[in-house]
Amino acid sequence: MQSDDQSRVDEFADFWAPDRSTATWGGTLSEIASALPRRRAGGAVSKGRVIAVAVALGAALVAVPQTPVLALPMEPESMDSLRQRSTELSEEYNGELRDMEGVIQEAERAAERAESTADEVDASKEQVRALAYASYTNSGIDPSMSLFVEASPDEIIDRAVVIDYLATSNQDKIDQLAQALERDQKAQKAAEESLEEAEADLNVLEERRSEVQELIAAHPSQPMEGPLNITPRTAQMRQLVIDEFGEGKEQGGVGCYRAVGGWVRGEHPLGRACDFMLSKNGQMPPQDQIDRGWAIAEWSRENADRLGIMYVIYRQQIWDVRRGDTDWRAMGDRGNITENHFDHVHISMW
């Protein structure tokens, strides 16, 4: 499938169910009025009588005690403003994320340095202990100790001089390593503290991003727009999935708007659905792409309320918020891998 190719008609299957009811009291009363029996001459129910009944019913409904009328809500923030905020927050978030990655790397390097220095300190201490033991027992110098003598062993005749020389040299080394170890440990601690601060900043940014994402998803104006010809709510979901799981261009990429929806009209022609491909040319995807599909599908379920996701289809199964689903439901066989959604994840929006 060519990603977001508006000229191509694919036979991707959609699940369809009516959207939420938007009936008003006025519309309901009109339906009631039109549904009343109308008899002809000789006891006919007049049009005025029908209207009177409807008005009386409306009056009765209005007469029911109501909660106090609250002040009208403020006009929602414009979509352009929300998009700008979302872009700025994403850039800030990504910048903080890069900074945190640098802090993590520095913390790891500091920990590695501290561990290496500690090993050297332990080795030097062991050498000093061996020297002290040799001096105490008067058993002479271990031949391996000559490795630590910078001068030629022939130039150092007295055993005690050798021991003193080696002990002093190694003690200096221990002191230097101890200082390095202290420095590395301080660097590690500072890096860990910076990491905690970076994580806290990221959490705050993530909350702010999430709030803006919810405002975009809940915004009353959702026209089909832009080069992809999809709604802002759909565009946001599409980008978030790509950010989280990749676009998968080698597998066919992402396709949203199509003039024809498939078996039924569905949401593709309304700019309210996207297909995230896992393989090309109607082939069964490999296991790593099957797993990627499940990750996309489960992420969509977890974020459905926040982003305005209506239903998800994957591998001949559907999860639909309108039916109160808590788990996947099996779907009928539609004949091939693509129409049964084995090679892509379908996500439809409100």
Automatic annotation (TrEMBL):
InterPro entries: ARB_07466-like_C (IPR058593). Residues 90-127, 174-215 form a coiled coil. Residues 229-342 form the ARB-07466-like C-terminal domain. Pfam families: VldE (PF26571). Keywords: Coiled coil. It comes from the Bacteria. This is ARB-07466-like C-terminal domain-containing protein. It comes from Nocardiopsis lambiniae. The lineage of its organism: Bacteria, Bacillati, Actinomycetota, Actinomycetes, Streptosporangiales.
